[in-house]
Structures are given as C-alpha cells and as structure tokens.
Specification:
By secondary structure, the protein is an alpha+beta fold. The protein has three domains: about 50 residues; about 120 residues, 2-Layer Sandwich (Uridine Diphospho-n-acetylenolpyruvylglucosamine Reductase, domain 3); about 110 residues, Enolase-like, domain 1, CATH 3.30.390. Helices cover about 35% and strands about 25% of the residues. The strands form four sheets. The protein has a five-stranded antiparallel beta sheet. A three-stranded parallel beta sheet has the order 1-3-2, with helices on one face. Helix 5 packs antiparallel against helix 8 and helix 10 crosses helix 11. The radius of gyration is 19 Å and the shape is globular.
Length: about 300
C-alpha cells in the first residue's frame, strides 16, 4: 500500500499553504516525519494523497534572537536545538527536553513543530515550551497569527490546528534575564526512546532567596497539557525549602489527576514520581538562576 501519492517540497510559507489548500484529496505538512509516517505505516492514520515537506522553507529554519524573544523555527531539527548555544542559554529546559526526544537518528530529523502538532500530552519538547508560555506563529490562507501554545490542543493526539490548511512557522520564547532560569527532566522506561512515564519543565525567576515567579508543566497530566498553577502558587514568594516543597507536593495531589496507563505506569506511581521530579527540577532551576553566563 502506498502511504502517499505525491511528495512536494515548497520553498516558502505561501507556497506550502497554496499546495495544502489546492491539492486534490488529503494533503498534510510533514517535517521529520518521525510520528506521521510511522502512524500511517502502522494503520493508525489514513493514507495521505499529498505530503508537503516544510523543511526547506527558510522562515521555518530560523533560530535567532529577534527583539525581546528567542525564535525557534518549526522545522529546525531537535538535534540542532539541543546543541544551540542560544537555546541552552535562553531556554535551557527546551534544549534539555529536545535532547531526550527519541534516539540520535530521530533527533537528526524530528522537529519541534512536529512535536507540538502531533498533540501528545507527554511530548517532551511541547511540555518544555509550556513552561515558557511560548507564543506560536501559525500561517494559514488568511495570513499569519500569534497564538498561545496553551490553545493548540483538543485532546490526546488532537490538535486545534487545521493541518490541511495551516502550518506552524515557529515559536517565540522570552529572552533570559538576570535571575531567570529553566530546567527539564523526565522518568522513562528502560527502552530509552518511548514516551515518558512522567516529565516536568520549570521556568523560574529568582529574587535573592525567594521565587519571584515560576511556571510548571507536567506531562502527561490530563487529556491536554496545562500549567500547574496551584502548585506554582505554593512556591511564588517563598524559598524552596523542605516546608515549601512539601506544600507544593500536596498541591500536586490536590490539583492534578494523573491517569493509570497499562503500558507505562499507574496513577499512584506517577504521583510519587511527580514529587521526585519537583524537587529535582526546581533544585536545578534554583541553582541556575544566577548563572547568567555570556553566550
């Protein structure tokens, strides 16, 4: 069975949108293809008439500072993101998360845009972007728009994007300032390339010995990803000592309903791991907050 009939390589965003909207039958954008092609081959996704390869579009390959933001193009390979000095400096959690996606061969081709568009609630790159409240640039037939990453998900594997007419151009993250830091970690099965049992990303702003502000995201923590705001409130304005961390751990149990998975872990085990990850990731971000080395 042919899993596609036509493979097209546009060289501009506008050309890609035109092909998506004018091709007969089903047309979908493809980056690294590490998720989409596997799903089609395994029968979990219907065959596609036209695949539109977005990896030659210059706008989607940018990785640079622009104004007050770091821009990461949707088609930049995650290996490049992991190794980028800019990303390691301004968005350490994103570099750490991308370094854990799949294995080396997958990271050479997988893209952050695909990681987000696939809409899995435990995707490592996507969870790290949540901690930064990333803004997503989306192109459609009506032009381009910016949208919060928190608005892009309908359910497990269900994106709010219309992938038959829209593509992700890239992600805007705030540049790191003194006192700010981030961190990411996950617990996974021994195979090393599966989705995590649980992951966590933190962005933090430290003011002397207290946390001025903090963003926390766990994955998977529900059918769609979200910020753990109740946990954040237990930490803002406080020193992350044993008492504060215990209150934050209690807030996890009160506000997040982890689910059991026959393939990966029980809800009870995920709650246990959430406490371990909370201490680890907050500890790393706390120590990094005054390490504003020059790029």
């Amino acid at each position: 069975m042919n899993i596609w009939q036509k493979y097209v390589i546009p060289h501009s965003v506008e050309e890609a949108i035109h092909i998506l909207t004018s091709s007969p039958g089903t047309a979908l954008p493809i980056g690294g293809g590490t998720d989409l092609l596997l799903e089609i081959q395994q029968g979990h996704h219907p065959p596609v008439q036209t695949l539109v390869d977005v990896t030659r579009i210059p706008d989607l390959l940018r990785l640079e500072e622009t104004g007050a933001h770091l821009f990461i193009g949707a088609a930049v390979p995650v290996k490049t993101i992991t190794e980028s000095a800019l990303v390691r400096h301004h968005a350490t959690a994103v570099a750490e998360a991308c370094g854990l996606i799949g294995g080396p061969q997958v990271r050479n081709t997988a893209t952050l845009g695909g990681n987000v568009a696939h809409a899995l609630p435990a995707a490592d790159g996507m969870i790290s972007l949540f901690a930064f409240d990333a803004q997503v640039e989306i192109a459609s037939p009506s032009g381009r728009r910016l949208q919060s990453i928190q608005t892009l998900f309908k359910g497990p594997g269900k994106s709010a994007l219309d992938l038959s007419s829209e593509i992700i151009v890239g992600f805007y993250l705030p540049l790191r300032r003194p006192g700010q830091s981030s961190a990411f970690s996950r617990v996974m099965r021994p195979q090393g390339v599966a989705l995590p049992i649980l992951n966590m990303a933190v962005w933090m702003e430290r003011d002397e010995q207290v946390i001025r502000d903090i963003h926390i995201a766990f994955g998977p923590s529900g059918p769609v990803p979200f910020r753990a705001t109740q946990v954040e409130q237990e930490l803002i304005g406080k020193t992350p000592d044993a008492v504060t961390l215990q209150r934050a751990k209690s807030a996890i149990h009160q506000s997040i309903q982890f689910r059991s998975s026959a393939m990966r872990a029980s809800a009870a085990y995920r709650h246990h791991l959430s406490e371990v990850l909370l201490e680890e990731v907050i500890g790393k971000a706390w120590q990094r907050a005054f390490e504003l080395e020059a790029v």
